[in-house]
Amino acid sequence: MRRTRWILALLALTILLAACSKTAPQNTMNPAGPTAQTEKNLLVLVLWPAAAVFLVVEGGILLISIRFRHRKDRDRMPPQIHGNTRLEIGWTIAPAIVLAVIMVPTVSTIWQLARQPADAMQITVEGYQWWWGFRYTDPDMAVNYGDHDAIVTADVMVIPTGRTIDLSLTSLGGGAHSTAGVPDHEVIHSFWAPRLFGKQDVIPGETNHIVFSADAPGVYWGQCAEFCGLQHGRMKFRIHALDEADWQRWVANEKDPAVAPTKDELAQKQGMDLFFGNGGVGGQCIQCHGVGGTAASSTAAPNLTHFAATTHECFAGCDFETFNPDGTPNIEALKAWLRDPNAVKLGAKMPDYGLTEQQIDVLVAYLYSLK
Ligand code: HEC
Ligand SMILES: [Cu+2]
Fold first, then answer.
1. Would the CB of 242 count as within 6 Å of ligand 1?
2. Which of 276, 350, 353, 356 to mutate to test the pocket of ligand 1 (most atoms within 8 A of CB)?
3. What are 181-236's pLDDT values in tens digits?
4. pLDDT, tens digit, 9 for 90 and up, residues 301-315
5. How many Cβ atoms sit within 10 Å of the Cβ of residue 8?
6. How far apart are CA 123 and CA 116, in angstroms?
């Protein structure tokens, strides 16, 4: 009995102390932009009345159960009261008033957050099983090659600090698994970066919106918040807010096509040949992956045009770091991914191609040349 009590107390303490984590990149209580701030204000506003109600109700239960508990010298039943009109009217009206008052800031916040300013920057967020894609659809974000399509990234959404951004959220099929033109794996996700904005559902065939901005440069973490299958828990992303100069540099780089390796960069060149199936070997990669400025234009999997750009910190649903802490390529992580995606992320919609170590080496060299 004593032991159980100790174990329970320790468990409770562990849960409590977990709340003290210093590295809490997904802390709603630490907003980093106006949308998250507005949502937090409302949360806190409702929290206090809720806390008061909690104390009164739970305190009342505790008080009554202690005060009227069974004692040896007492009759089994204390006197029973039935029906008290004044009390009943009271506890019906009081909560109604509390709810009516709370409704005023709640409804006005809903309207406020639903506003879509005309001058906001437009980014389409695409939810796949199990990674996020980002499409920059403003005319001035078109790439400067081919058909001048939008800049597309995966895993990390890069934004300019202080600019209002209007996200259009859609759910799309993962992998090249469309059957007779009907995409598979279109499921409901939810987009959530707690320090920047609250959750919003991502529904096939619908377009939901989040309007937000980031106050300061930095990296803000987020993840899928609606169960969407096996790897839902590892469907993460990051939002990287850059200052104006870095943002301009990033945009200029993203607008350029992927740089093709020269003859002298032998490993990279061999990797590229394998990727595209030049010379008859390989070529599976381009069934799903797009590389800007080349014949690879599929949108079924993460776009790899600037896979090795420094802002592309993480890959495959941000499960793996693209770079080591010292900034060098995280070659081991990418090798493990190419050896067998399902071994490191069970269920991933990228098959194992039984690549040899030599093939993996040259593919890694090619992918890390895509800056
Ligand atoms: C059948 C479609 C398909 C094919 C073919 C395919 N991939 Fe993938 N690939 C995916 C999907 C889907 C993901 C994302 C999976 C996830 O995160 O759950 C992915 C992720 C990746 C990533 C991480 C990208 C990022 O930025 O997150 C790399 C790198 C990659 N694949 C390389 C390759 C290479 C190299 C080949 C050829 C050997 C290849 N892929 C063939 C579907 C495919
Ligand atoms: Cu999801």
1. no
2. 350
3. 556 678 999 999 999 999 999 999 899 999 999 999 999 999 999 999 999 999 99
4. 999 999 999 999 999
5. 10
6. 13
Are 371 and 309 in contact by the 8 Å Cβ rule? The answer is: yes
Half-sphere exposure of 315 (CA within 13 A, CB side): 26
The ligand placed nearest to the CA atom of residue 232 is 2
Report CA(369)–ligand 2 centroid distance (Å): 30
Would you give the end-to-end CA distance of the chain in angstroms? Answer: 62
Q: What gap in Å lies between CA 88 and CA 94, rounded to an integer?
A: 10
19 to 22, 29, 118: CA distances (angstroms): 9, 12, 40
What domains lie within the chain, and their CATH numbers?
A: 266-367 (2.60.40.420)
Which of 300, 294, 291, 337 is closest to 315 using CA atoms?
337
CA 228 to centroid of ligand 2, rounded, Å = 5
Where do we find the tokens 């009271």?
A: 90
Closest CA to 174 of 239, 231, 124: 231
Output the residue whose Cα is nearest ligand 1's atom 13. Answer: 301
Residue nearest to atom 8 of ligand 1 (CA): 350
Beta bridge partners of 191: 200, 224
DSSP 8-class letter at 232: G
Hey, whose CA ends up nearest to atom 9 of ligand 1? 350
Burial of 283 (0-12, 13-18, 19+ CB in 10 A): middle
- Which residues place a Cβ less than 5 A from the ion ligand 2? 189, 224, 228, 235
The one-letter code for the residue type at 79 is P
